[in-house]
Design goal:
single chain; alpha+beta; Glucose Permease (Domain IIA); 2 domains; two-stranded antiparallel sheet; 8 helices; elongated
Length: about 375
């Protein structure tokens, strides 16, 4: 059986305790009923101004003027911002960003120290790099929740992009969200040296992911939920015969004995067999890597708003170059056993917004 080492898929612990029940109140008197509408209006104005720092320009997320409900520890006026901060970010969802802030501060600014400021706990140096006046109130401050949400989103998305590059080259393996959180906790270089989530970062990653269920309603289209496949998105087989030698899912690695996620499907493919693009797109990467050998990554654009990619690894030869546009079925390379491989085969992956999905569900004649 031919196999290839792939990344870890850490367990997701349960969420924290639920919100306490509200206290019972007595009904209003006659006088209160007369003045109550004006008090509510003024109270709502003062509460909103205090929350958004005096004039936040809240993005319209859906119907103009639509009010947002609070989500866990996130006030309703802040709900659109995690979505905006991660709108173009692969691997970091609004829920993950909210859970990250929850882990850092519990969404409380007043507990911050002199060196770590606001709900996102930025240092002065970190704020200088990532902070902006995103709420439009005339100042850039880590104590403005909207500014802090957007700044941490920029930082996490930058780390996600770096992790994507390292994972594409085979330098690191694992879940993109976990790699991103690990890079935040211990630095990009430490993750690269470990080839995945290093031990010192595992507790932090687990604590953030434990909080994810609380913020699931922040995610309009979460690639980690459901089947992760559009109904009409069917791919062509990358090799003529789809004989699976190692399926997608958890397995013990044949060389190291370590049990972890096998991030794609291994198809039996003799040396030199033609490998073709499962779908049309643009070549994002085509080069030699230490673990994957000759590897091709194709970007297929978006499906239902999610970025779709396929990968082809352990090739004996490349037939495409980075930046080249391909049509479905066009040659990408020849099967082989380069990199960390036990014999000739094709390791084929399908990624949706940076998350590994079962390739067999995407193939027209494979699922």
């Amino acid at each position: 059986m031919q196999n290839v080492p792939e990344g870890d898929d850490a367990p997701r612990p349960p969420s924290r305790a639920s919100t306490p029940a509200p206290r019972r109140r007595r009904g209003p008197g006659a006088c209160l009923l007369i003045v109550l509408p004006g008090m509510v209006t003024l109270g709502g104005v003062f509460a909103f101004v205090s929350l958004v720092g005096g004039g936040a320009a809240v993005p319209q997320d859906g119907t103009p003027g639509q009010a947002e409900s609070a989500v866990s520890n996130v006030d309703g006026s802040y709900v659109p911002w995690p979505r905006r901060a991660t709108a173009d970010c692969m691997g970091v969802t609004p829920a993950l960003l909210a859970a990250h802030i929850d882990q850092l501060s519990g969404w409380q600014s007043d507990g911050a120290g002199l060196s770590e400021l606001g709900v996102a706990r930025f240092t002065d140096a970190g704020w200088k790099k990532w902070g902006r006046d995103d709420d439009g109130n005339g100042r850039s401050s880590p104590h403005d929740e909207v500014d802090a949400i957007m700044a941490l989103g920029r930082q996490d998305c930058s780390l996600s992009k770096q992790m994507t590059g390292l994972r594409t080259k085979g330098t690191v393996n694992g879940d993109l969200a976990e790699l991103t959180l690990a890079a935040y906790a211990v630095g990009v270089d430490e993750v690269a040296r470990a080839g995945g989530v290093p031990s010192p970062a595992r507790l932090f990653v687990a604590e953030v992911k434990k909080r994810l269920p609380q913020y699931s309603t922040l995610v309009e289209r979460n690639p980690e939920q459901g089947s992760g496949q559009a109904a009409d998105a069917r791919m062509q087989a990358p090799v003529a015969t789809l004989y699976v030698t190692s399926p997608f899912g958890s397995r013990a690695h044949p060389l190291t004995g370590v049990t972890k996620l096998h991030t794609g499907v291994d198809f039996d493919a003799p040396q030199g067999v033609q490998v073709s693009a499962a779908w049309g797109g643009v070549v994002e990467f085509a080069d030699m890597t230490p673990a994957y050998g000759y590897r091709v990554v194709i970007d297929h654009g978006t499906v239902d708003g999610k970025r779709l990619q396929t990968t082809y690894s352990h090739l004996s030869a490349l037939q495409v170059s980075t930046g080249q546009s391909l049509s479905t079925g066009q040659a990408v390379g020849l099967a082989g056993s380069t990199g960390l491989s036990t014999g000739p085969h094709l390791h084929f992956e399908v990624l949706l917004d940076g998350q590994y999905t079962d390739p067999m569900a995407w193939l027209a004649n494979g699922g």
